[in-house]
Amino acid sequence: MKDGFIKAAAATPEIRVGDTAFNTKNIIEQIRQAAEHGAKLIVFPELCITAYTCGDLFLQSALISNAIDCVFKIADASAGLDILIAVGTPLPVNNSLCNAAAVIKDGEILGFATKTHIPNYSEFYEARHFAPLSVNTTVTLRGREYPAGPKLLFCCEDMPDFKVGTEICEDLWVSSPPSGYLTAGGATVIMNLSASDEVISKAEYRRSLVSSQSARCICGYIYADAGSGESTTDMVFSGHNMIYENGAVLNQSKLFENGIIYADIDVQRIVLDRRRMNTFENDFSGGLQKIFFKTEINETRLERTFDSRPFVPRDREKLTERCELIFTMQAEGLRKRLSHIGCKTVTIGISGGLDSTLALLVTLRAFEKLGLPTSGVNAVTMPCFGTTDRTYNNAKRLIACTGASLAEIPISEAVTGHLRDIGADINNHNLTYENSQARERTQVLMDYAGETGGIVVGTGDLSELALGWATYNGDHMSMYGVNCSIPKTLVRHLVEYVAAISGGKLRQTLEDILATPVSPELLPPKDGGISQETESIVGPYILHDFFIYNFLRYGFSKSKIFRLAKSAFAGEYDEKTISKWLDSFYKRFYQNQFKRSCIPDGPKVGTVTLSPRGDFRMPSDSTIII
């Protein structure tokens, strides 16, 4: 339960048609299994106490009476178990019979959520036996009144974000499912007790319904389906259980295998996503009846996995597709800017590193879209104190391979003169020494662009912006930043993608650039090699991109990000290393907002960006919130 995680279960028990005692015995066994597994919520199929396929047996008073007795038996058996239970049962209400979910917790029946949409077409003839309730009411069982109706919301007192609503089978298949108003009223988890028979292609459609509704309602969705044991007189049931969260599948069962599936739903993430979307409906009308229950808050043993590279799809085919889309979006952003201002040349600094390489490749694609010659791309190398032969040669080879125009402008003399002018010791390799080079490079690029009638294309990426790893009014500045929403881990894959579809010298050059350590090259080389490796200073970009994603996309607390990182990087980074760089991330992120408050224009390509004009606005003098 800690950090918003709820371990949920969807269960399909072995049943016999009309044998309520047998069915109840197996339901109770699965409840105990789930509780022992750590589940805080378990959902069973529609009418599973009796079986869905009882037909006109639902008109027999003995069957209905036995079913209600079994609801109480299940409640008694749940005493002392910290798990919310939803089990399908017929429920007599006044002169009608309702298709209901008995919701039970720790020995108590909390209420009966009833089915709203009663199908009476094709193989379904529920209206022969069941009627819907239009409003909430009460039912009297064994001398006690219980809430019953379509608008019940089960709310956890100890964990306010854990609120549960109920749909029953057909309720999901209609144009306006009850989950719409249930989630508008605060439900973060929807339970669906279902008896959906299996026909060709129905499983795919069922998945699409659950996925899209959980995404539309920004909720966890637990779908428990009837399985073997139901009558096969006219239908077969596959026990297709699913657990989704905001459109993404967390777990699902194999067809025709009864049993229990589990997944960890993050209700905190759901609430944070809803707050971010100001169009998410809030129902303040009070139409839902809230029923409260208690649960123990403890640290859920997580089975959920967390992607250590959240910006990079694991599937190679999907990654290739993603890279082409992003590359095209970057190029389209620059194409529009150049077209709008009537610019036929650009200036871009090429260092032989990943970021400038990607920016050059994107710029060339934009020129191709515009029908402009690549000679209009003025690629400038500016060797200085820290430039190594490897990066220098790679920069020149890259420019030659792409057909861009090469301009080589050494800046050592200019920087030396500047340091002398301000009274700085050139042998003191401090921040002034480094920043003076970065600012001189930017001055050269700006003035060269002015001289050639173009604009400067920026090369800095999202990870550098988040960490403040840029010299203010140096590499921090340009006229259009094509990489501004590309995290470092994705920059590498975009360059790899272009290398894979290229050949000859270009491919060889890109592969060597990919193999070169990331460095700003502002300190003199050591034995001819790079002496200043970025990741040894600011930390591994793989870790920082994970922090950035969870901090910005979901607004998670520092302690939760640490917990997720420990799971995601198990066997790759130890806790001490993760903690060290997470502390560094928070410090750098908050200290460097002033740089992000005035960044150049650039295209948004993913769900996480730092533009002060779009996705992220923060005071530059905010204290660190953990």
TrEMBL record:
Family matches, as Gene3D superfamilies: Carbon-nitrogen hydrolase, Glutamine-dependent NAD+ synthetase, C-terminal domain, HUPs
Residues at which deamido-NAD(+) binds: 435, 464, 469-472, 595
Organism name: Candidatus Monoglobus merdigallinarum
Sequence ranges assigned to domain CN hydrolase in this UniProt record: 6-267
Main EC class the enzyme belongs to: ligase
The protein's role, per its UniProt record: Catalyzes the ATP-dependent amidation of deamido-NAD to form NAD. Uses L-glutamine as a nitrogen source.
Residues reported in the UniProt entry to bind L-glutamine: 121, 196, 202
Gene Ontology CC terms, in alphabetical order: cytoplasm
Residues the entry annotates as binding ATP: 349-356, 459
Pathway membership, UniProt: Cofactor biosynthesis; NAD(+) biosynthesis; NAD(+) from deamido-NAD(+) (L-Gln route): step 1/1
Entry's EC annotation: 6.3.5.1
Statement: the UniProt record of this protein carries the keyword Nucleotide-binding: yes
Keywords: ATP-binding, Ligase, NAD, Nucleotide-binding
Source domain of life: Bacteria
InterPro entries the record matches: C-N_Hydrolase (IPR003010), C-N_Hydrolase_sf (IPR036526), Gln-dep_NAD_synthase (IPR014445), NAD+_synth_C (IPR041856), NAD/GMP_synthase (IPR022310), NAD_synthase (IPR003694), Rossmann-like_a/b/a_fold (IPR014729)
Catalytic residues identified in the record: 46, 115, 169
Coiled coil (UniProt feature): none
PROSITE patterns tied to this protein: CN_HYDROLASE (PS50263)
Name of this chain's protein: Glutamine-dependent NAD(+) synthetase
UniProt family annotation: In the C-terminal section; belongs to the NAD synthetase family. Belongs to the NAD synthetase family.
Alphabetical GO biological process terms: NAD+ biosynthetic process
PANTHER family: GLUTAMINE-DEPENDENT NAD(+) SYNTHETASE, NH 3 /GLUTAMINE-DEPENDENT NAD + SYNTHETASE
Pfam family name, one: NAD_synthase
